[in-house]
Design goal:
This protein is of the alpha+beta class. It has 26 helices and 17 strands.
């Protein structure tokens, strides 16, 4: 618990304010704030989430409902908002402690006491994303997913090993239901369990084998989960979960029924496996036929790009969508090692030992399930970082098992295993946990800005109490129209939920990336007439820009700032029109990258607002001409080499020079993102409304402020 609390305590619990970590935490808290006023009714739609059309609540209900229940009980039926915030901040830490216990129970059931203690030690100290989502103030549902999956596996395997175990089977079904109502994409776990169950039935099929363990607990658990999910069938993605449960029940039953029928026939092995092969081919044929009619190929492509978004350039700059094996356009294991350190290698050894043991020695369904789960999560985690909070469970179990087996080999291997665990796993885990970058909450300047917005701007729905109203679907459905008083706030998507919960205003876009393309096109717009239609379309009254959005001077070729993220969402703007990546020979004669900034960069609305305050730039002194020529790396990839540069005293002179040499490959640029190379007119309909107190460009009163708010005064 210490590594989840001590480094973050003062960051989370600030005077008069609980600073929740990460973006989604703010929306879970917003939902819980509404829930405790109408308990047990949780809002399924929310008019504050994004302007234009009332959206469904973006999160599944169980995590929020349990948080609201705890606060409701602690507050004797009428908890204060401050009590809810305190409980919400501690919520992920308590769930993390429960996860350690659940991993211990599952490992003890499958591998024994020693492996269980080792697995619990690993999961308790793992750094990286798993530590992040289970730390103080990270009030998001991810740690509950890990807990409920582990607990479901434990209850299911215990029921299978100790039939009939009706109560344990029911508990497994309720736990599975809670999990399916915690994560929208939970159908993938159902698919993995079904694959394990079918494989186990196929693996057990042999006339000379002892009777396989009954899967009645699995059927009962799936049926309970299906019944409960049908009640919540209108939730986002719930149709996939229901389909997975239905197909899972039918598929497992079909394989078991076919196995029983074949045992009564001559040559049962041939008939059983022949029938499975025929069924598989038929399913593939049907899928191929449907793909032509139902565009399944497109659906498959969408699924693949969602499972590995960074490999396909669809991550949108989101941290948890980055890959564990792909970074900066090349494959590397560095991100994976940073997530798990030595446990990453030991877990792979454990998975290989499990595979070898299951093939050549024991046919244990529990160990097979751990292997299936661990292998599937290993593959998925390579595609996107957020799956590491699932793979962490497999890492802990497989590491505990691998070290336990090494200890059992003899004294020498026991010492090697113990030292490896201490020096390669526990020690670096603890070091990373206490020395990592821990602050991911609202910076002070943003808190100051959002507080101002809450108290000094008009209420979008007229009455502040509307923030706590019970939003019924029948009242806030597709036909709902926002009142004339309602307006939106234009800001980049990652602060959308903070705008909702702290400022209690309606953002244009939010961390679901809804309308992120619209926001990107506004911030990249090249003139006020081009930008105003976006503000009018979303009834925007205020625009917020902050220090993260522009690019900052750096000797490193890596760009410092979020400006490039706009191009991952915009469909009309190209990064090459704003930025130039060119190479010049370094001291060793090798090409060295350098970034230059084209006029479009300075004309963009985000730069004109943040850097120049919407004021005119009449005498820019950053103009220079960049002379380039095309060359190729040894591997054949082309690049632009800098032939020469020439600075000019005025932008007009530089523009004239560029027009004369443009055909030869020259470009008008600046080499400083803070100094424009072109003149800019003053903005007429966006005026400063508020600025935070911290300066980030310049010194004293003349510096540009970290967060700035502009009011749109047009119609």
């Amino acid at each position: 618990m210490a590594i989840r609390v001590i480094p973050r305590f003062d960051l989370v619990f600030q005077p008069g304010f609980v600073n929740f970590q990460e973006t989604d935490a703010w929306y879970h808290v917003r939902v819980a704030e509404n829930l405790i006023r109408h308990f047990p009714w949780r809002s399924m739609v929310d008019p504050y989430v994004a302007f234009g059309q009332v959206q469904d609540t973006a999160t599944a209900p169980f995590y929020d409902w349990l948080l609201g229940l705890v606060a409701w009980i602690a507050g004797f039926g009428s908890p204060s908002e401050s009590l809810l915030h305190d409980i919400a901040a501690w919520y992920p830490v308590v769930l993390a402690v429960c996860t350690v216990v659940a991993v211990f129970l599952l490992a003890r059931l499958v591998f024994g006491w020693r492996a269980a203690l080792l697995a619990a030690a690993v999961i308790a100290t793992l750094p990286g994303h798993f530590l992040r989502v289970s730390s103080l103030g990270f009030t998001d549902h991810h740690i509950m997913e890990s807990l409920l999956v582990t607990l479901f596996f434990f209850l299911l395997l215990r029921a299978i090993e100790n039939p009939p175990a009706f109560k344990t089977s029911v508990a497994a079904g309720l736990t599975l239901s809670a999990y399916l109502l915690t994560f929208h994409g939970s159908a993938i776990t159902v698919g993995i369990v079904v694959a394990w169950a079918i494989y186990d039935r196929v693996r057990w099929f042999s006339p000379g084998e002892k009777p396989q363990p009954s899967f009645r607990p699995l059927y009962l658990a799936f049926l309970i989960a299906l019944a409960i999910c049908l009640i919540f069938r209108r939730l986002v993605w719930m149709n996939y979960t229901i389909t997975a449960l239905e197909l899972g029940i039918v598929g497992i039953a079909a394989v078991e029924g076919w196995a029983k029928l074949c045992r009564r026939m001559r040559q049962p092995d041939l008939r059983f496996f022949g029938g499975l092969a025929a069924a598989t081919l038929a399913a593939l044929a049907v899928s191929a036929a449907l793909s032509q009619r139902l565009s399944l190929r497109h659906s498959a492509k969408v699924i693949v790009t969602h499972l590995a978004p960074s490999l396909f350039g669809t991550s949108g700059g989101v941290y948890e969508l980055q890959s564990l094996v792909y970074d900066l356009d090349h494959f590397t294991l560095i991100p994976a090692i940073r997530q798990f350190w030595g446990a990453y290698v030991l877990a792979l050894i454990g998975l290989l030992l499990l595979l070898a043991e299951y093939i050549f020695k024991r046919r244990d369904p529990g160990r097979a399930l751990v292997f299936f789960w661990g292998l599937a999560m290993f593959v998925l985690a390579m595609g996107e970082l957020r799956m590491t909070y699932y793979y962490a469970i497999g890492v802990a179990l497989a590491t505990g098992y691998a070290v336990d087996r090494l200890i059992a080999f003899g004294r020498w291997t026991a010492w090697v295993a113990a030292l490896s665990l201490a020096l390669l796993v526990i020690a670096p885990n603890l070091y990373a946990a206490f020395n990592g970058d821990v602050f991911t909450g609202i910076p002070p300047d943003w808190k100051e800005t959002l507080d101002w917005m809450r108290t000094s701007t008009p209420e979008p729905f007229g009455d502040p109490a509307f923030f706590y109203s019970r939003y019924r679907r029948r009242d806030f459905g597709p036909n709902y129209r926002y009142p004339p008083s309602a307006y939106s706030v234009m800001a980049w998507w990652d602060y959308g939920y903070a705008i909702v919960d702290v400022a209690r205003r309606i953002p244009v876009t939010n961390p679901t990336q809804f309308n992120a393309g619209e926001a990107a096109d506004f911030f990249l717009a090249q003139s006020e007439p081009d930008a105003i239609p976006f503000l009018r379309r979303w009834r925007t009254r205020y625009v917020i820009v902050d220090e993260r959005l522009p690019l900052w001077p750096s000797a490193d070729p890596l760009l410092i700032g979020d400006f490039p993220a706009f191009f991952q969402y915009s469909s009309t703007h190209r990064q090459s029109d704003y930025l130039v990546l060119a190479y010049q020979p370094n001291a060793a004669g090798k090409p060295s990258p350098k970034i230059f900034y084209r006029p479009a960069y300075y004309r963009s609305m985000v730069i004109r607002l943040f850097l120049f305050g919407g004021q005119a730039v009449e005498a820019p002194h950053g103009a220079m001409i960049l002379f380039l020529q095309q060359k190729a790396f040894p591997g054949g990839q082309s690049y632009q080499e800098i032939v020469g540069t020439k600075r000019y005293s005025s932008a007009e002179e530089a523009a004239t020079a560029e027009a004369a040499c443009r055909a030869k490959g020259c470009q008008l640029v600046s080499d400083n993102p803070m100094v424009s190379c072109v003149s800019l007119d003053a903005l007429q309909q966006l005026h400063p409304a508020f600025a935070s107190t911290s300066s980030v460009v310049g010194f004293g009163r003349s510096g540009r402020k970290a967060v700035q708010v502009y009011q749109f005064t047009g119609n």
